[in-house]
TrEMBL record:
Gene3D superfamilies: Glucose Permease (Domain IIA). The chain crosses the membrane at residues 28-49. Residues 54-102 form a coiled coil. This is M23 family peptidase. The lineage of its organism: Bacteria, Pseudomonadati, Campylobacterota, Epsilonproteobacteria, Campylobacterales. Pfam families: Peptidase_M23.
Length: 300
């Protein structure tokens, strides 16, 4: 029996060539099968590669979640320690106040500044000297207060804690000046939530702290500054909810109400000395008087 075959004949000057249609179809089919097989093999390897990557990403995600939980737990523990320390600090403050009262410092502070001036015969120059050496006045332009001194709910941490300073409203870049003459104890960035801050040491055990300032070095540690001298610019660094200046006044490890010192002037000294009773002012007045007399004798 003779089978019919479809033949394609190509003739040129070199002769004729015959191609059977069934052979062409077979070759095309083989090529297609080969391509499909190669594609499936390549796809299998690629899917396996992607699967391994997904597994790696899942492992890293689990590790990050684990670390996140560990950090969250550590943060909670740290917050508890800070809260405990704040309570201990408050208790120590109360004990110090009790000791002062037992030593008679409270009774001394009941004296008015008028009585002290009469007893010690302070001159106008001596009063000015007191104001030059202890913090007084606003370190920035008075734009108002956004946070008071004392116990409050922390605006970020959402828990009750002691606010050791006062928050003064200020736009970023507002000039900050020394509220008394002294020496720079620290100027730089701190990881305690204060951000960039400057700490000044003053005479008679006073210290002022300026926090959340711009990262701009205007003064450096060890530098002497005078009252009214530029020490930096207000900012929004550290643990802060917005631009402002955090301002503290301290006296030998005691945090004092800064508002009294902000409003302190010669004309209201009487009210000031009776408002802030945690400092033995009588001793300070005597020290300033002795200092003034020594300077006068040297000049003579």
């Amino acid at each position: 029996m003779i089978k019919n075959k479809f033949t394609i004949t190509i003739t040129d000057i070199n002769g004729s060539k015959h191609f059977y249609l069934n052979q062409i179809i077979k070759k095309i089919f083989i090529y297609i099968i080969t391509f499909v097989l190669l594609f499936l093999i390549f796809s299998g390897f690629y899917i396996q590669y992607l699967d391994s990557k997904i597994t790696d990403v899942s492992k890293k995600r689990e590790e990050l979640l684990k670390k996140s939980k560990e950090l969250e737990l550590s943060n909670i523990q740290m917050q508890k320690k800070v809260e405990d320390k704040a309570k201990e600090y408050a208790a120590i403050e109360d004990k110090i106040a009790s000791f002062e009262e037992a030593l008679g410092l409270e009774a001394e502070n009941n004296l008015t500044i008028t009585d002290r001036l009469e007893n010690l015969k302070l001159t106008n120059e001596q009063q000015v000297e007191i104001l030059r050496q202890i913090p007084n006045g606003w370190p920035i332009e008075n734009k108002g207060i956004t946070g008071n001194f004392g116990w409050r709910e922390h605006p970020l941490l959402k828990r009750k804690e002691f606010h050791p300073g006062i928050d003064l409203r200020a736009e970023i870049g507002t000039p900050v000046h020394a509220s008394a003459s002294g020496v720079v104890e620290f100027a730089g960035y701190s990881d305690n939530g204060y951000g960039y801050n400057v700490i000044l040491l003053h005479n008679f055990g006073f210290k002022t702290v300026f926090a959340h300032m711009m990262r701009k070095d205007v003064v450096k540690a060890g530098q002497f500054v005078t009252k009214g001298q530029l020490i930096g610019y207000s900012g929004n660094t550290g643990l802060s909810t917005g631009p402002h200046l955090h301002y503290e006044v301290r006296f030998i490890n005691k945090t004092l109400e800064p508002l009294y010192f902000l409003n302190l002037q010669r004309k209201n000294m009487n009210n000031f000395f009776n408002q802030e009773r945690r400092v033995p002012w009588q001793s300070l007045v005597k020290a300033v008087t002795a200092q003034h007399l020594a300077q006068t004798q040297k000049q003579q």
